Amino acid sequence: MKTSEEDNEFQCRTYGKSELAQLYCPNIEAKTAVAKLNQWIALNPGLKEGLEDKGLRHCAKQYTPAQVRLIVNALGEP
Q1: 72 contact partners, CB below 8 Å, separation of at least 6
Q2: What is the pLDDT of residues 42-55, one digit of tens each?
Q3: Looking at the record's lineage, which domain of life comes first (predicted)?
Q4: In angstroms, rounded to a whole number, what is the distance separating the alpha carbons of residues 26 and 20?
Q5: Which domain range does residue 23 map to?
Q6: Residue 64 is assigned to a structural domain of this protein
Q7: Predicted TM-score (pTM) above 0.85
């Protein structure tokens, strides 16, 4: 049987942009959370370029598991 801690363990999987952003900023509106996450990505040296190397495009609606791993490695788990 899983403990509540195991249920809350973060998984690197495909996330919608607003879904991942709200994990990092749960108490603000989705659109604002996405803007905040984008700001953190832009301020983190090399992260934006790394995400682009992994196929991220400005118009993308989701992050792939590889992109999520880059974000988590740079920002920590949400």
Answers
A1: 10, 12, 78
A2: 999 999 999 999 99
A3: Bacteria
A4: 10
A5: 12-75
A6: yes
A7: yes
